[in-house]
């Protein structure tokens, strides 16, 4: 069934979400507003009882069930905020709910769902990813004739999320542009179908993580299409395919789509903290990251009223080390570069003199030969990319060879911790990055599939609080066994990307020195 825009308007206005939800504050980010030359307003959905907007859609959906459906109970699959919203709503309405979560879900999220759901919710851990958990939820729903509660592709869920728009217009009817994070699209759909009917001149910009841009992919294809893979940092928007109904509405009412990087998202988390002392989850900070990037692309915009949604604050504590490490790169207040310096007394001192008093934030040194050394260096910037260009120009004029690693994800995730090791002899070494699921036995699966057949020459594991860890692994692969290796790689079933030609690897870790 297709609902009209008027139907959505009516459903949003009559939604009973305020049985459980609060009318969240719309606050002006004073510091960021001064910095960007526009008034920046933030809708504080972290103030909801479950620390995210997902409560609205979940409760609205459960409220629309028939008495028979309520008696039979409900099922959903989620590893995050939707699960908590359903659990809280089911407890409040005393509806039996089964929530299927992947086995990789961090304990803190599992315990939160159990706490919110109380005796009315049964948490089932199944599979190693969302797709497997979702399949199990659908199986259980069909087996017991229970209602599935979708996270975003549902009329009632969309209308529940749309109640935020009602509050926005009451709190600031003068907004010029609204920036909205997109995962499955339910929030953007609910907001835009309401706002465009009451204030059609309000521009709506969807913001996606650049490694999970399912709306952008759907717009380009003319229909929802699955992404080959999705990024794991902003897990709240890590959706492979946008919902059919959210896409229909976003196609009609969203004016523009912008994508942001993980570093830009980290900078936005810091922006929000600086003004509010609230720590947003990565997905919750996307709208502010979008505002920063949009204003950088449109430097003629001044004195406008710009709004964003802090859609969630359920962040794993251990993610903060990653955020802290990357936020200044996102703000362009730091750069990381690789430089060759002469291997002689006083070379490091001379290099530091050329920095002209700039602060070194990180320094990794590796002896390369009797003639030269390689360094991985982080440098504080006061004037962004212009200052970096001035600095690197100074290095070149003094005979230093360098290259920029600020956008090299492998260098920032792995190589910076590994500078110092090269193989003692020539190897047929090939390098791969993997997304490694966090569940018992995952490492043994990796070793059993690949490690018994090919010698592992390098291994670095990195986790920042997500359900997946990040692994960099090297293998000694003779030329005549590459096809066999590729076959085993496919059997492994993990997301991977070959990094053998990555310049950071060649410069710091390889037995080949082919960067310059």
Helix content: 40-55%
| Percent range for β-strand residues | 15-25%
Number of helices: 20
Low-confidence stretches: none
Rg on CA atoms, Å:
25 Å
Task: Report the sheet with the most strands, covering strand number, pairing sense and barrel closure.
Answer: 6 strands, mixed
Number of strands: 18
Trace the largest sheet across and list its strands.
Answer: 1-2-10-7-8-9
Average pLDDT number = 88
Oligomer: single chain
* 3D shape: globular
Structural class: alpha/beta
Q: What is the distance, rounded to the nearest whole angstrom, between the alpha carbons of the first and last residues?
A: 60 Å
Characterization of this structure:
By secondary structure, the protein is of the alpha/beta class. The protein has 20 helices and 18 strands. The strands form four sheets. The chain has a six-stranded mixed beta sheet with strand order 1-2-10-7-8-9, with helices on both faces. A hairpin with a 5-residue loop joins β16 (455-462) and β17 (468-476). The radius of gyration is 25 Å and the shape is globular. The termini are far apart.
